[in-house]
């Protein structure tokens, strides 16, 4: 019984993380982990402070 509860808790955490990532990508956020992610655009990544070289 404990195994089932543990699996459900992990699945809920992973599901919540995926839902957050999908929601942010639909909004157009380029750098999700960046503190200034709302101001980033694909053209000027360097100007917003994001150092992700995708």
Describe this structure in words.
The protein is mainly alpha-helical. Helix content is 56%, strand content 0%. The chain has helices at residues 2-27, 45-48. The longest helix is centred in the N-terminal third of the chain and has 26 residues, at 2-27. The radius of gyration is 16 Å and the shape is elongated.
Low-confidence stretches: none
Q: How would a textbook summarize the main sheet?
A: none
Order of helices and strands: HH
User: Helix/strand/pairing class, anyone?
Assistant: mainly alpha
Shape: elongated
Number of strands: 0
Descriptors for this entry?
about 55 residues; mainly alpha; about 55% helix
Short structural description:
The protein has 54 residues and is mostly helical.
List the helices and strands and how they pair.
Blueprint: H1 2-27, H2 45-48
């Amino acid at each position: 019984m404990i195994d089932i509860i543990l699996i459900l808790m992990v699945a809920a955490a992973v599901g919540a993380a995926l839902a957050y990532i999908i929601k942010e990508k639909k909004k157009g956020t380029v750098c999700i982990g960046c503190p200034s992610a709302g101001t980033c655009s694909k053209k000027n990544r360097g100007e917003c402070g994001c150092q992700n070289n995708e």
